[in-house]
Amino acid sequence: MHSPPLLTSLIAWSSSHLSLRDKSFQQVAMQNRCAALRDLRVALDSDPTNVETNLAISLVLCSLESIMADNGDAWFLHLNGAAGVIASKLCTVETSGGQGAACLSQKFEDEHSGRWLLRNFAYRDIVMSVARDKAPLLSSHHFLGPDEPRLPDSHFGLASEILEILYHTTVLNEQIKASLHSPSTLPDSAAVHPNIPPGIFAQSPENMTRFLSLEARLVRWTCPPSADLSLRLLGETYRYSALIHLYRVMRRAFPGRQDEFSSKAGFQVASIVGYVEQMPTRSLPECTLLFPLFLAGGEATDESHIKCIRNRMIDMIESRGFRNVEVALSVLEKLWRLRIARKTAGASLRVDWLNIVQQEGISLSLS
């Protein structure tokens, strides 16, 4: 697509990345970021129906603010803006069983580019929902289907089904949170037994069935064939990070079984570390390795696993300069120190990375 505003945003992204490597670019990078924001506003005001350009600019700026990590939750605001661009053109995706996504892609000048943009949004939306412990902004799983099932996506490689399972897990997580903290969101049947604690509904047989179904899909998943070893390894790290997230949600729903689900989540760490150690450093698929590394780091207790995760993230910081990786590692370092301190003091209360990001107001971007 030919779009001067989009070109401005791409220049802003490039100069911002350069400024992370060379401080002499900082002033021009800031000027380009301001110009990109100005052009985004002009594009939205002058042609709000141009979903292709407006979505592309929003996603570029979301990525820019993510790697810079110097402006609070600016990356999330751009992601929210991208969701608004999509929602303005998508009235039926919630009820059409996915057909709405196909209809939306037809509104792009280039359907192939449109589907890529929608997948890009879906990836960021689903990863965001894990990092912020919130529901996805849209029914993003409808956008995950690749143009060709055997062709990898530029962000999540061969793991499109894993992202879809992650989506359903985050939606279930939001329902669990609501049932635990807001009685008004409970089923009508709660009125019949008003003295039953809300947590009982989080632990319902129906929810356990949903958990077990998602777990079975992840366990059975087979990575699509590819000649690229790094892509296959990336897919496996996403599979095991999805299992970690699933067990974390189950731990929330069933507090009486915390040790069981913590142990299950911990088992996945070794698998992720094993696949990460096989992946060549500074390979292209490594660009999206932050999500599985962080999820593994959040459950890691073995010193060798922690060392592997720390060293890989440090290498990513040195080679790519992305500040969101620095922020993520700083959260993990605080978590690991707190766990050591509490273990030394004999404290039994579990500390979680969510406690750190929420208490310190950290806007964590893992995409």
TrEMBL record:
Keywords: Nucleus. GO terms for cellular component: nucleus. InterPro entries: Fun_TF. It holds the Pfam family Fungal_trans_2. It is found in: Nucleus. This is Uncharacterized protein. It comes from Penicillium atrosanguineum.
